[in-house]
Design a protein that fits this description.
It is a multi-pass membrane protein. The protein is of the alpha+beta class. The chain is built from 4 helices and 5 strands; from the N terminus they run αββββααβα. It has a single domain, classed as Butyryl-CoA Dehydrogenase, subunit A, domain 3, CATH 1.20.140.150. It has a 5-stranded antiparallel sheet. The chain starts with a helix and ends with a helix. The relative contact order is 0.22.
Amino acid sequence: MSSALQMTALGLTLLSTLFLLLATCTDCWMVNADDSLEVSHKCRGLWRECVTNMQDGVRTCDQYDSILADHPVKIVVTRTLMITADLLAGLALATLVLGLDCIKFLKEDPCVKLRMCYGAGVTLGFGSILGLVGSVWYAVDVYVERATLVSHNIFLGVHYDFGWSCWLGMAGSTGCFVASVLLTCCLY
């Protein structure tokens, strides 16, 4: 039972960490269309903004000036939280791999291996909370930005949606949280 639970947690951790990394690196956190004819499709991310022409499929991207330049708070906070979540999930994944029963590392001391799995679960828990806060922070800020424009009767012809990177961040964080629960609560 313990080995099956460890392998399930490992698979979920691996997939969730991949989702978190993809969410951090990709550039489609917020999607909007510039007009009602949907001639172009714009994605804003943490690192750049890309516009895709829907007629010919040409995509152009503008990098943000510098990582140290003044950016909106939502970008800075989301970058920080997502990078920290990525690092914690990667550390937890490495610790979990070393703590698995099927790995020969520290085979003579199963109590230490169990503590390593528990430590990986706690680290994953912290990483999942940071990733979820970062993803939800960005999503709420996008919603508030749009609601502010609508409440001031500013018609821009722009419809904001959460991009697939935002959803990947939320899914990866949730998966890390479930793996954390498996490792910390169910493994004993």
